[in-house]
Amino acid sequence: MTTSITTQLPFARFRRLRRSAALRRLVRETRLSPADFVYPLFVVHGQDVREEIPSMPGQHHLSLDRLAAEAQELRSLGVRAVLLFGLPAAKDDAGGEAYDDDGIVQQAVRVLKSADPDLVVITDVCLCEYTSHGHCGILSLSKDGVPDGEVDNDSSLELLARTAVSQARSGADLVAPSDMMDGRVAAIRAALDADGFVNTPIMSYAAKYASAFYGPFREAAESAPQFGDRRGYQMDPPNAREALREIEADIAEGADVVMVKPALPYLDVLSQARQRFDLPLAAYNVSGEYAMLHAAARNGWLDLRASVLEALTSIKRAGADIIITYHAKEAARWLQDEA
Ligand code: PBG
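# PBG complex -> structure
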């Protein structure tokens, strides 16, 4: 016997709860909030600098004297955490300014913490902005003392640990190693503890891929490698199981927060990490992800507000507790309008 379609009428089911903005809001599974966001800042030497980064419209290089105003704006928007990157006065083989107590990032931490003690100040721990060769560690030397083009894992650890300790000494609330050397979380934890910074947590860029989406950042941070690329230390994009092993290792070494980076092209990795691990999980919505939406919106091809909020909501839905994003300020403004 065949059932006539009319016996199944009415079909109404899922659509009942989609009929008004108020109902949709009530049954929403994921809610984005400015409290989720970490806003990256690029700090430079000099006075009165607020220069737009061409590949990242709306993002600026800021000098120290501009940071208090920035902190105030972030507070008014409900964005309560920043991630600091520094452009040093000079670069050298060993990235000396990264671990100088008077380096640009160390000074920026002090300025921000005195402007707003409640602001969570996170510092990126890496050498690539500070080295003349642009790599995230130091180069190994051949027998006759000439760099052989390799980034040396173990000798880089000591300088990364010094960087983290120096940042903690300046008052950083959280240090975030992004270099992808093996063993760096353990090295940084041991160095922090030895210097009395037992209460400074580590947010590890645990699953950081060798991604093409970092292009605009490298222009902003002047940190592009001068030879070769980062594939010898950052993760290979096709690998997801390996990301879970990286995260597991960083947790075992003492990471307090773990990160997947980039975000949108790696939501599968983020989602698997969420299912497997209970630690706070961060996702880095990187410079190229930001630049894509802004470029499309400038051409009239995408609605900026709708596409940004959808992208950020998707990152949260996939499992991120913390979203590091250049969209933080504009998104916080839009969320305020909606509230
Ligand atoms: C430093 C670092 C990079 C980013 C964050 N920390 C660049 C890189 O690894 O080349 C990229 C962030 C972004 O693209 O927004 N190692």
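# post-check
The pocket of PBG is lined by residues 124, 126, 128, 136, 178, 214, 217-218, 223, 230, 286-287 (CB under 6 Å).
The CA atoms of residues 73 and 329 lie 9 Å apart.
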